[in-house]
Design goal:
By secondary structure, the chain is an alpha+beta fold. It contains twelve helices and 16 strands. It has helices at 25-34, 46-54, 75-80, 87-99, 112-125, 132-147, 193-204, 221-228, 246-259, 263-272, 321-336, 348-355, and strands at 2-3, 10-11, 40-44, 60-64, 70-74, 102-106, 155-161, 164-173, 178-186, 211-213, 234-236, 239-243, 279-284, 287-299, 302-312, 340-342. Helix 5 (112-125) runs antiparallel to helix 6 (132-147) and helix 9 packs across helix 10. The chain starts with a strand and ends with a helix.
């Protein structure tokens, strides 16, 4: 269990071990509930996602989170930077090596304090760029890693220019052929320091490691560009699973019936865009009979409301339920002072309906 991005929301990792891990999900859901939250599983593998989808987990929505995908590299390519596509990296290294008298050293306990000072300087330089929660969480994780470096069987390396530490990195083995780089920091005043520590650390890794996992980009655009520039052999998809509330499950059932979209599309909507405060509904004894999602946003015309996902259950059609929801949406938009109510009909029949 952890706090997502160092914030208030709790996330749970995929349970490890042999057998069907879905049996532990009720215990995790109860733990989340005791903390006033619902269960969020973060970082599910493809196999873990299939295990849940194949079991009795209909209460969950799943989404492949691009920001959580791990970047996996061929270790030999990181060691040698071969071919034209790595020419920019070699140029960075050549500039660094021609300008600085440097040395590579293994990361040992005596250097941890220097590393934390470099990390603090690196973090302070980026304090105004957002993501401060992630940075604070990373700092705490680094300190805990240093406190238990030997127990965790960590390996790391450093770059010094003279007596000054300008870069460091460390990680641990995932298995007997894949190494995971957890942290990499450098003083950006020394151009090329990131590239040099990356290459030399890969070079000093035991040769048994043929793959290097450099983890996810967290949706940070600069980090995404940097990780992509090393040409990963693959991006390992990971999923989020969210236990749905009863109203969300009702939306999913009606959405399937009305639109025929696949679960991946519906789940992405429920996880990223759904807000019950922006939803108008007609509910009967049989359940959700009609729905409309009113999404506010700003555009050149001013504040507008986008009408999305208007649907009526098959057995309830022809009774004017959707028309009544549209009238309510228009009344609310007028009360808010919106400039317009906006929608995009999906086909000719819907255009005829909305024109009325």
């Amino acid at each position: 269990r952890f706090r997502i991005g160092g914030g208030g929301r709790l996330g749970y990792m995929q349970p490890l071990g042999e057998g069907d891990f879905t049996r532990i999900l009720p215990a995790l859901a109860a733990d989340a509930h005791r903390n006033g939250q619902r269960l969020r599983l973060i970082g599910l593998s493809d196999a873990g996602c299939e295990t849940m989808r194949g079991g009795d987990c209909s209460e969950f929505a799943f989404d492949a989170d691009r920001s959580l995908a791990d970047y996996i590299y061929l270790a030999e390519e990181l060691r040698t930077l071969p071919g034209r596509r790595f020419q920019p990296k070699r140029n960075h290294i050549n500039r660094f090596t021609s300008e600085y008298d440097y040395r590579y050293e293994p990361l040992v306990r005596e250097r941890f304090a220097e590393c934390m000072r470099l990390e603090a300087d690196w973090r302070q330089a980026r304090a105004g760029q957002g993501h401060t929660a992630e940075m604070g969480a990373e700092q705490r994780a680094m300190q805990r890693a240093f406190d238990h470096f030997e127990e965790l069987e960590m390996l790391g390396g450093c770059i010094y220019v003279g007596d000054k530490l300008v870069a460091f990195t460390f990680g641990s083995a995932v298995n007997d052929h894949t190494f995971d780089t957890h942290v990499e920091k450098a003083d950006t005043a020394f151009e090329g320091a990131f590239t040099v520590i990356n290459k030399l650390f890969a070079k000093h890794l035991p040769p048994q490691f043929t793959l290097v996992n450099r983890e996810e980009d967290l949706g940070i655009e600069g980090l995404r560009r940097a990780k992509s520039s090393y040409h990963p052999a693959l991006r390992l998809r990971k999923y989020a699973a969210l236990k749905l509330a009863p109203d969300e499950r009702a939306v999913r059932r009606l959405w399937r019936e009305a639109f025929g979209d696949d679960d991946a599309f519906i789940d992405a909507f429920l996880i990223h865009a759904y807000d019950r405060r922006r939803m108008l509904v007609h509910v009967e004894a049989s359940g959700l009979a009609a729905m409309l999602h009113a999404v506010p946003f700003e555009c050149e015309a001013g504040r507008v409301t986008y009408v999305y996902g208007v649907a009526t259950a098959r057995d309830c059609r022809g009774r004017g339920l959707a028309t009544e929801l549209l009238r309510r949406a228009e009344a609310q938009a007028r009360e808010r002072g919106d400039a317009a109510l906006l929608l995009i009909p999906a086909d000719a029949a819907l255009r005829a309906f909305y024109e009325r």
